[in-house]
Amino acid sequence: MSAPRRRPQRGPRSEMPTRRRPRRRSRRRPLLIALLALVGLLTAVALAAGTGVYAFGSSCDLASLQEVRIGQNTFVYAADGSLLGSIPADRNRQVVPIASVSAWMPKATVAVEDRRFYAHGGIDPQGIARAVVADAKARSVVQGGSTITQQLVRNLYISNERTVQRKLKEACLALKLNDAWSKERVLESYLNQVYYGNLAYGIEAAAQTYFSKRARSLNLRESAMLAGLTQAPSAYDPFVEPAKALARRNVVLDAMRDQGVITAKQYRSARRASGLQLSPGRLYKEIKEPYFFGYVRDQLIRSYGTETVRSGGLSVYTTILPRWQRAAQDAIRGTLTEPDDPAAAVISIDPANGAIRAMTAVVPGRRNNQFNLLSQARRQPGSTFKTFVLAAAIEKGIDPDSAYYVSAPFTYRPVPDGNCDDGSWWCVKTYDSTYRGWTSVSRATLSSDNAVYAQLTLDVGADLVGKTARKLGVRSPLEVGGRYVPAMGLGSVAVSPLDMASAYATLAAGGIYSEPTAIRKVVLPNGKEDTEAGWGKAKRARVIPDGVAAKVTEILEDNVSYGTGVRAAFGRPAAGKTGTTDKHADAWFVGYTPDLATAVWMGYPAGEIPMESVHGIAVSGGSFPAEIWRRLMERTIGLRPVKEFPEPRTQPEYQPFQRGPLALSYDPTYVAPTTSTETETTETTPGGTKTTTSAGTTKTPRSP
Questions:
Q1: If phi over 0 gives left and psi between -120 and 50 gives alpha, with beta otherwise, what is residue 144?
Q2: Cβ-proximal residues to 185 (8 Å cutoff; 6+ apart), any chain
Q3: What is the pLDDT of residues 539-580, one digit of tens each?
Q4: 527, HSE (Cβ side, Cα atoms, 13 Å)
Q5: CA atoms of 607 and 75, how far apart (whole Å)
Q6: Nearest to 203 by CA among 75, 89, 93, 69
Q7: Using one digit for the tens of pLDDT, what is the confidence trace for 452-488?
Q8: CA-CA distances (angstroms) from residue 159 to 46, 144, 153, 166, 586?
């Protein structure tokens, strides 16, 4: 009987030989599994190659598949071709031909993604085998087995779902795409589709996002970094993980050197560069002229819809003149110089076609305000609205030179039992509480006399005034409670600066209205201009006779020469009107020359806050707004040859006119005004000489 065996004494775990053999087996197991998987995958690939069309039927037909839409950015340009900005989108993308991409970028991409790209037929069994083995050895994904063609198929047509069925379909489509497209087209499409991180789809967006340059300008080092991002954009994000991005860039450079794509000298030079030398781009973030830009975006959305505007790849060419924009901003800042000054907004329109040439605002302490003060904001226009009363009166047949009213405090009593405090009566005073007794409509325009214009509005009819304003270009709602109210004639109903500039541009054009336009043309992603939308085609129509417009212009020219608008004069033929609302909450100057109409508004965007001490004065339309208008016009129209307003072909047809209740245009309880004044004045009127004393009342003669 033999002696029993003695078991060896156990030593430390690190010295136990029994632990080493299983460890060697554990290293082989992933490799063995990987090889088995490789055999299966290669078999599947062979199946796809040989019988893919029959196995998948129509799902492997390129013509029957719907391309996954990534979209691309819409860009907006000024009239001089300079870029105003990109409409914000969830994905930034600009498609460019491969000829507009740096030669280094395709080389780097092929070297790291698909070194046999030009040799294989769409799928690469050697690449798959190499990737499987490398991944198994590293116990992680270090190489991709998919070719560039397969990745393109995945991006274009099918999902990233990890199933055998999807991989087989991908292989089949890759084979067919390789037969249908040239290698250059495949690579170009891939470079325009692949995701590089940070919302950048395609190489042009990536170049702008990371290096603030065009794809054509990328150097070797930059191309290598971008080529390395596509495998895992988040993991290699150069803004978040610069060390990992740098290491990945060097992997790409290694691959390019090992494959003979670059020389040893080029390799060393690229590796020596310190860091990534990023230059974060603002192309997709920075927007110039935000007010105008927002107005254009809204117009595009109304025409094309939000999705197309944000990702439809439109190129939008507008009417704005950057030099005039700068002139408008300088005019505001040169006038309102203090940090706590009110805001001001300016809009200029070409009367010949409605093209918006300037649209800007300056709001102290606030940048890129999303609320458009020019087109969205509405404020009471004050006496600038009297121009529409004047136009309506002349068109009705009232001669402003011979129609006289009493300038005196005035009360309109539409109901017997009312008062001025609750608004049931319309109680009117002049801006400065001074009165001139009998005065013509023309003279009352130059002094912006509220009392006279209140009476004129009633005689003309609020309905006619409202309709005239609308004909001329005011698009803001003017009805109050479903009807036009007489107080509208003094500017009590809120409108936008765009409304006022458009309406005054109609007068500058001799009574021809042009719809305001901001877009000259839109180019679609295929490079063709959209001619069906009507961009750039002026929509014009005569709305009042040229003789009526000319008479209004004549009076408003006098207003600039020696009326309330004298601070707007700049040595050229110009017409305009001031406007100031109660408690100086809003101040306006709206005026025009033969070839430009400009509206200036001044106030606080937050609300109707009195401007009673700005640079030591109470703000009126004839102060800062008129000065801003003058500064702008000097730097724009003032640089052109002098141009006179054209002579009208027709003249207004005046008719006998009856003031007051006999006109039957308003409530007959109105009585022609009388007033007590503080000083004695004497004035010659159509009815004779009239004297007013401080203790007496004005005696109203009969209508001439």
A1: beta
A2: none
A3: 999 999 999 999 999 999 999 999 999 999 999 999 999 999
A4: 3
A5: 34
A6: 93
A7: 999 999 999 999 999 999 999 999 999 998 999 999 9
A8: 22, 17, 9, 8, 58
Calculate Rg over the CA atoms of the chain. 38
**Contact indicator for 208, 75 with CB cutoff of 8 Å:** no
The SS3 call for residue 217 is helix
Residue 57 token pair:
């039927």
Q: Which two tokens stand for residue 61?
A: 């037909």
- Asked if the model's pLDDT at residue 141 lies above 50, the reply is no
* pLDDT at residue 642 in the model: 95
How far is the CA of 576 from the CAs of 113, 126, 459, 472, in angstroms? Answer: 67, 80, 24, 15
pLDDT band for 41, please (50, 70, 90 cuts).
Answer: low
Backbone angles phi, psi at 428, to 5 degrees: -115, 135
- Return the DSSP state at 164: H
Query: Two tokens at 386?
Result: 């009297």
Q: Classify burial at 53, counting beta carbons within 10 Å of its beta carbon; exposed 0-12, middle 13-18, buried 19 or more.
A: middle
DSSP reduced 3-state for 271:
helix
Whole-prediction pTM value?
0.78
Q: How far is CA 408 from CA 430, 449, 611, in A?
A: 8, 9, 26
The Cα 436–Cα 443 span in angstroms is: 10
pLDDT at residue 485, rounded to an integer: 92
Largest separation between any pair of C-alpha atoms in the chain = 159
Structure tokens at 366: 């606030």
Q: What is the pLDDT of residue 135?
A: 54
| 258 and 239 Cβ atoms separated by less than 8 Å | no
DSSP class of 181: S
The arrangement of strands across the sheet holding 575-580 comes to 356-362, 343-349, 596-603, 586-593, 575-580
- How high does pLDDT run on average in the chain? 83
Answer yes or no: is pLDDT of 599 > 90.
Answer: yes
At which residue do the structure tokens 């707007």 appear?
Answer: 568
483: CB partners within 8 A, 6+ apart: 462, 463
What is the phi-psi region of residue 200: left when phi exceeds 0, alpha when psi lies from -120 to 50, beta otherwise?
Answer: beta
348, β-bridge pairs: 358, 598
- Please, are residues 147 and 174 in contact by the beta-carbon 8 Å criterion? yes
- pLDDT at residue 667 above 50? no
Q: For residues 508 and 562, give the distance between their C-alpha atoms in angstroms, rounded to a whole number.
A: 20
